[in-house]
């Protein structure tokens, strides 16, 4: 048995051991993989996949969760979360993710209780090294990280997903929209809407892996380095797309896309 086969077996064993699960299903590569495997080994009657709906979830992600549930036969539901009403979240300190995850787990708690199930999240081994206070909140609420227990890295998730024919295997990372707002800048509905509209408009232009970082009237656009030249060639369309979302100034970050780079800035401040 190869290393990845052993990890997959460990994941399946872990999920079977829970008996019943509620999967926090954001539609990303990791949570989609957990949702698929949980449904496969437990059956849909014992695996409920729940997507949290709030202004911090991009509309495209919600639509894809619905589509994946239909394609894969997942038992799926949506739950509304209200993190924006929490002053500790809206203040956008470096512990914002902690308060967000508490809100998520409080929303999933009643579902898990009604299902007599364990809440599981798609956290992988690589996530443990980043600034992720939300993981602490999840642990405090009794959520489990089966990918970590089984030893899955992000690359492992993508490789096994590809071997299983899951279309999410190469899906670009899509953190919550609040991650585009520098720490200390309040998170508001208007800000999240601007970011969502700008990123949606850029995807229409064909850019897949991207971030629109919010600095008031200025948007800092991060794209894959291989896409920078194309963005410059189409700069008039890029500018129009981002300004159409409400920004006055549009900048292109020449370092390219870096997941979690605002976490680095927060840690250094």
Account of the protein in words:
The protein is of the alpha/beta class. 48% of the residues lie in helices and 13% in strands. The longest helix has 20 residues, at 96-115. It is globular and about 55 Å long. Residues 264-269 have low confidence and may be disordered.
- N/C terminus separation: 47 Å
Helix count from the secondary structure assignment: 12
**What is the 3D form?**
globular
Give the spatial strand order of the biggest sheet.
3-2-1-4
**Largest sheet entry:** 4 strands, parallel
Order of helices and strands: HEHEHEHHEHHHHEEHHEH
* Helix/strand class: alpha/beta
Please provide the count of β strands: 7
- Poorly predicted segments: 264-269
How much helix is in the residues? 40-55%
* Radius of gyration over C-alpha positions, nearest whole angstrom: 19 Å
What average pLDDT do the residues reach? 92
Strand content: 5-15%
Summarize the structure.
By secondary structure, the protein is an alpha/beta fold.
């Amino acid at each position: 048995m190869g290393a990845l086969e052993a990890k997959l077996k460990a994941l399946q064993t872990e999920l079977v051991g829970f008996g019943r699960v509620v999967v926090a299903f954001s539609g990303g590569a990791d949570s989609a993989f957990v949702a698929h495997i949980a449904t496969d080994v437990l059956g849909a009657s014992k695996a409920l996949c729940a997507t949290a709906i709030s202004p911090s979830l991009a509309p495209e992600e919600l639509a894809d969760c619905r589509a994946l549930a239909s394609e894969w036969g997942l038992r799926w539901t949506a739950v509304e979360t209200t993190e924006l009403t929490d002053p500790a979240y809206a203040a956008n300190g470096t512990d914002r993710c902690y308060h967000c995850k508490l809100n998520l787990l409080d929303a999933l708690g009643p579902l898990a209780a009604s299902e007599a199930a364990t809440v599981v999240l798609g956290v992988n081994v690589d996530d443990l090294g980043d600034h992720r206070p939300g993981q602490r909140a999840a642990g405090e609420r009794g959520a489990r990280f089966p990918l970590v227990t089984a030893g899955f890295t992000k690359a492992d998730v993508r490789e096994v997903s590809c071997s299983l024919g899951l279309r999410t295997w190469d899906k670009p990372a899509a953190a919550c929209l609040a991650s585009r707002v520098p720490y200390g800048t309040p998170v508001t509905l208007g800000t999240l809407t601007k970011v969502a509209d700008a990123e949606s408009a850029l995807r229409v232009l064909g850019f897949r892996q991207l971030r629109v970082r919010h600095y008031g009237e200025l948007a800092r656009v991060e794209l894959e380095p291989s896409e920078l030249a194309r963005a410059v060639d189409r700069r008039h369309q890029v500018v129009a797309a981002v300004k159409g979302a409400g920004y006055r100034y549009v900048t292109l970050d020449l370092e390219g896309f870096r997941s979690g780079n605002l976490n680095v800035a927060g840690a250094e401040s």
